[in-house]
Amino acid sequence: MSLADDWIVPDWPAPDTIRAAVSTRQGPGVSTGTYGRLNLGLRSGDVAEAVEANRAAVVAALGLARSPHWLQQVHGVDVVDIDGPLQHGEPRADAAVTRRVDEPLAILTADCLPVLFCTRDGSAVSAAHAGWRGLAGGVLEAALAALPAPPAEIMAWLGPCIGAHSYEVGEEVRDAFVATDPGADAAFAPTRPGHWLCDLAGLARRRLLQAGIGSVHGGGFDTRTDDRFYSYRRDGAQSGRFASLIWRVG
């Protein structure tokens, strides 16, 4: 791989057959203005031709055998099995799974949490998009269920998302978690009436541990304060998207 200096390579004990990377704003991209340079989101308002060129640049930079499997993410819990019949275009789903070699999975984010999974034997990988709605709805548990291994044989890596000190949410977000898991209250800190700071990565880690995943890595990012990343909270509707990718090699 030939990565830009500030791209992220996950530091986790994945098998040698597993590859993963997280793009940033920097690299061989052609987007301009608020989208500069390496915006990978087709639905972000950027020029489609620029985004397609950026996506091709990612393929070249990572030495991928094919274009990643991009998703039409909708803050839901559906998981698409890349090894099965695929619909035309980008599937409407918030997670994907594959057991095949050289089939890169990709999750686009700009504050939401990307989570990468692999089995300990390297036989399968999955990737999930966890905004608060998807996380509360069970998207991580759905991604785990799609992998051909019990939870104890799966490891997870938490990618860059908005940090706990930057993410203020309303009462409805806290209620979505605490109503079914009172212990999730520890991930929320009150700010002003009806509002809370939310530790999105902490909530994800808690749910993964409860699901039986004993090997959870990553975290510690804050997309809102780290200029390497796109951030919807910081940049608004004209924010681009960066990608978290995972794939198997032969």
How many strands, which pairing sense, and closed or not: the largest β-sheet? Answer: 6 strands, mixed
The H/E string reads EHEEEEEHHEEHEEHEHE
Low-confidence stretches: none
Estimated structural class: alpha+beta
CATH-defined fold name: CNF1/YfiH-like putative cysteine hydrolases
From the 3D coordinates, which CATH architecture would you assign?
4-Layer Sandwich
- First-last Cα distance: 15 Å
CATH domain class name: Alpha Beta
Please give a structural write-up.
The chain has six helices and twelve strands. By secondary structure, the protein is of the alpha+beta class. The chain has one domain (18-248): CNF1/YfiH-like putative cysteine hydrolases (4-Layer Sandwich). The protein has a six-stranded mixed sheet. A three-stranded antiparallel sheet has the order 1-12-4, with no helix packed on it. A three-stranded antiparallel sheet has the order 8-10-9. 46% of the residues are buried. The model has no long low-confidence stretch (mean pLDDT 96).
Secondary-structure blueprint:
Elements: E1 18-22, H1 48-62, E2 79-81, E3 95-98, E4 105-109, E5 113-119, E6 125-130, H2 132-137, H3 139-146, E7 154-158, E8 168-170, H4 171-178, E9 188-190, E10 195-198, H5 200-210, E11 215-218, H6 232-235, E12 242-248
Parallel strand pairs: 2-3, 7-11
Antiparallel strand pairs: 1-12, 3-6, 4-12, 5-6, 5-7, 8-10, 9-10
Summed up:
21% of the residues lie in helices and 22% in strands.
Notable characteristics:
250 residues, alpha+beta, CNF1/YfiH-like putative cysteine hydrolases, six-stranded mixed beta sheet, three-stranded antiparallel beta sheet, 6 helices, 22% strand, globular
